[in-house]
């Protein structure tokens, strides 16, 4: 499987961020063609101590590279990307990963 | 679920790193009591371009906080942690996350 991994730094207004993420962004992400699964996790601690470098992680799973590439080119993904930049610019690191096995 | 998320920067000797990770480290991690699932992913790209900040990610899933905390205190986990520091010191970021839903 291929997944898009979004790592978010802690925003200034956590409540507003989460509200937008859940009410506006997530529905857009879920419209992306071929999305198999969305896993969202709240980062609670850095195991080595101190403030964790990230606040939240979202992983969007696609069956294979073909499906992933098609999804990334879709209008639905463009809308999700545009929305992302509207509330998470400067906060988000977006990585493309290949899941082993 | 609760998961330990290990984000690894790219090592100097990728081949040696992966050999150690797969042949020595992974068996130790899998001995950790209560580990439900280990998901390893290779980071292939930074969606915004440039070199991705990480090379590999490993996620270790536990059923709940009680199981996770017990696992972290275990002798097996101590062995895995000691091994981690032997080959990944300076490379690894280790986060504790709570999976939504």
Automatic annotation (TrEMBL), chains A, B:
Known InterPro entries for this protein? Dimeric_a/b-barrel (IPR011008), EthD_dom (IPR009799)
Which Gene3D superfamilies does the record match to this protein?
3.30.70.100
For this protein, the record's Pfam families field holds: EthD
A molecular function GO annotation = oxidoreductase activity
Give coiled-coil spans as residue ranges. none
* EthD domain ranges (all copies): 10-88
Name the PANTHER family on file: BLR8190 PROTEIN
The name of this protein is Ethyl tert-butyl ether degradation EthD
- Please name the source species: Marinithermus hydrothermalis (strain DSM 14884 / JCM 11576 / T1)
């Amino acid at each position: 499987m291929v997944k898009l991994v979004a790592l978010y730094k802690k925003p200034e207004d956590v409540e507003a961020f989460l509200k937008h993420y859940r009410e506006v962004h997530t529905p857009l992400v879920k419209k992306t063609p071929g999305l198999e699964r969305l896993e969202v996790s709240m980062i609670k601690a850095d195991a080595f101590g101190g403030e964790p470098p990230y606040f939240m992680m979202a992983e969007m799973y696609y069956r294979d590279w073909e499906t992933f590439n098609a999804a990334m080119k879709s209008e639905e993904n463009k809308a999700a990307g545009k929305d992302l930049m509207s509330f998470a610019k400067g906060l988000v690191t977006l990585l493309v990963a290949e899941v082993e096995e």
